[in-house]
Amino acid sequence: MNPLDILLEPLQYEFMVRALLATGIAAIVCGLLSCWLVLIGWSLMGDAVSHAVLPGVVITYVLGVPFALGALVFGVLAVALIGAIRDTSRIKEDAAIGIVFTTLFALGLVLISVTPSQTDLGHIVFGSVLGVSRADFAQIAVLAVIVFALVLLKRRDLTLYAFDPAHAHSIGLNPRMLGALLLGMLACTAVVALQIVGVILVVAMLIIPGATAHLLTDRFSRMLWIAPILAAVCAIVGIYLSYWLDIASGGSVVLVQGVAFAFVYLLSPRHGVLARMRGRRRRALASVSAGE
């Protein structure tokens, strides 16, 4: 079988075309948002929100209303609970995040277990990109457009908030509102991604692209290009691998992203492990030469 057949054969099936488009869209949006999550240091918060939305998604699924509504409500609830526990007790933020997101995630699992048997919600936990319907794809596209538009409109404000919240406040911006906006986009993006890789692996799509881009460049503007492009390429490769190797699609997508991160982590020209080892070796040789 030649390379052209490998590329074209999956495209003969409508569900594969839909899966490729849905995964590509989700990857691009997750890649964009991951730049801010990595920059601010919200990786654990991304994990918390992506898991905490599960009860809201289950409830809205059963009621037949859009996933985004329930996800947004429970995303905001999770953040509020984390803040309340942190501010009114001796518990630190990382512990509060762990308590809230595991409890809400467990609530979601319980709700899944008590829904009617004819309602299969397992795909919410583990993802089912090959089963994305036209209605699901429409929801993914709409949420992605909303998040993408907000990123374009508020890119400068969010970037300033990430680098220097105090300066953002001094020029009239509201850091609290910008943080809330970012969390709201995080909740919507989690809904987009969970239909692809499931709740368990959503955090990977929200963190790995930005972390990988961060190792490739020191400029945030370049990160905003590298992360979504890298995420989209990994997503497409992952879907093709899942087709040809008959493996889980969501896991395949995240695994390819993880391999890409490992490759960059080792071989990045400036921040890779090998580059740093060469730099230390050069400095050591220079110090020895200077001593002589």
Q: Would you identify the regions where 5 or more consecutive residues have pLDDT less than 50?
A: none
- Helix percent band: over 70%
Question: Helix-strand pattern, N to C?
Answer: HHHHHHHHHHHHH
Number of strands: 0
Shape field: globular
Mean pLDDT: 82
Contiguous helical run count: 13
**Percent range for β-strand residues:** under 5%
What gap, in angstroms, lies between the N and C termini? 62 Å
Radius of gyration: 21 Å
Structural class: mainly alpha
Tell me about the biggest sheet? none
Question: Could you provide a short overview of the structure?
Answer:
This protein has 292 residues and is mainly α.
